[in-house]
C-alpha cells in the first residue's frame, strides 16, 4: 500500500472528515463499497466467525493486519496483552488514537516476537498474496508460536464466483489458483496500486499446513463459503 489509501480513509473517518467510503474491486468482480464505519465496528457488530476467533484467544496475542484496531481493543478490554501490527501507517496512527497500547508499523514477515495466539482475520489468508508464498508465511507464523500456541485465521472459498448458471466451473486453467486475485482500492478519486490478495479454500490450506508441520483444524463455517481455522504445531 504505497499510497496508504486505506490509512488515509480510516484517519478521515476517525477525524470526522470522511465524505465517502472506500471502493474495492478485483480482476474478477465489479466495484463494491467498503463502508468505513465497518472498520470501527464493535464486538456485537462483528460477523460470527470473528466473534468465535476472539473468544478462542488465549495468552499473549498478535493481531496481524489490525486495521483500525477493533479486535485489539476488544481483547484489551478483556484483559489480554495484545500487539497490533499493520503495514498501513494511517491504520497504526488510528489504533494509537483509539487506545491500542502496543502497536507497530511492521510487515508480518519482520515480526520476531513469540505469541500464544496469532490472529489473521477479515480474510486473513489475503496477506499471503499467492499460493507460492504460502510455505514462507506458514513457516514464519509457526516460528512465532509459543509452546501450545495457535493461529486463528479465516478465509473464503471463492470457487462459486467462477461457476456458471449450470454449475460449471469456467476458470482458465493456465491462470493459476482461482483464489489468487488482483485487488484494487480507491478513495476520493485516488487509486492505490493493485495488490495480490489470496482467498484460500480450506482443503488447500490444510494441505499447505501439513507440509510445514502444522495441524489445521476447521473451527466454524460462515454463511457464504467462509470459514475459521485453527493452526497449531503438530505434536
UniProtKB/TrEMBL annotation:
InterPro entries: SAM-dependent_MTases_sf (IPR029063). One of its GO terms (molecular function) is methyltransferase activity. CDD domains: AdoMet_MTases. The keyword Transferase applies. Pfam families: Methyltransf_23. Keywords: Methyltransferase, Transferase. This is SAM-dependent methyltransferase.
Amino acid at each position: 500500500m504505497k499510497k496508504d489509501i486505506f490509512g488515509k480513509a480510516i484517519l478521515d473517518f476517525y477525524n470526522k472528515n470522511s465524505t465517502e467510503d472506500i471502493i474495492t474491486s478485483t480482476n474478477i468482480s465489479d466495484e463494491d463499497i467498503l463502508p468505513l464505519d465497518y472498520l470501527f465496528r464493535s464486538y456485537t457488530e462483528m460477523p460470527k466467525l470473528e466473534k468465535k476467533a476472539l473468544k478462542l484467544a488465549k495468552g499473549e496475542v498478535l493481531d496481524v493486519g489490525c486495521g483500525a484496531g477493533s479486535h485489539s481493543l476488544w481483547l484489551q478490554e478483556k484483559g489480554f496483552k495484545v500487539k497490533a501490527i499493520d503495514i498501513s501507517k494511517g491504520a497504526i496512527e488510528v489504533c494509537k488514537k483509539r487506545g491500542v497500547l502496543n502497536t507497530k508499523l511492521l510487515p508480518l514477515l519482520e515480526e520476531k516476537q513469540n505469541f500464544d495466539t496469532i490472529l489473521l482475520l477479515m480474510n486473513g489468508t489475503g496477506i499471503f498474496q499467492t499460493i507460492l508464498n504460502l510455505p514462507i508465511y506458514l513457516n514464519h507464523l509457526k516460528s512465532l508460536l509459543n509452546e501450545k500456541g495457535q493461529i486463528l485465521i479465516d478465509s473464503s472459498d471463492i470457487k462459486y464466483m467462477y461457476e456458471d448458471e449450470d454449475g460449471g466451473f469456467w476458470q482458465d486453467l493456465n491462470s493459476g489458483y482461482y483464489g489468487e486475485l488482483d485487488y484494487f482500492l480507491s478513495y476520493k478519486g485516488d487509486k492505490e496500486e493493485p495488490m495480490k490478495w489470496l482467498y484460500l479454500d480450506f482443503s488447500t490450506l490444510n494441505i499447505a499446513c501439513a507440509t510445514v508441520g502444522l495441524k489445521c483444524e476447521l473451527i466454524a463455517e460462515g454463511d457464504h463459503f467462509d470459514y475459521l481455522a485453527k493452526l497449531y504445531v503438530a505434536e
